Amino acid sequence: MIGASPSTQGQRPTMDFDSEKDYGLFEGMSTETLLTLAPGDIALLFPGELHRPMGTLTDPAPIRKLVVKVANHLL
Hints:
The chain is an all-beta fold. It is built from no helices and 5 strands.
């Protein structure tokens, strides 16, 4: 399961954005949508969208996470 939100608008950052590592952290997500993923499913998120990976409905399970970043001008 992954939580996702369409933007950072209205969200409170808990740290300054780390441009070197390309990430930031926020305090909760007020507009979060939960996506339940099955084996073989993918979640596609665009720049500016928040995500909270590694959630589970029941017991923790092994998960593989792959991040591929595409330059904005190519989208």
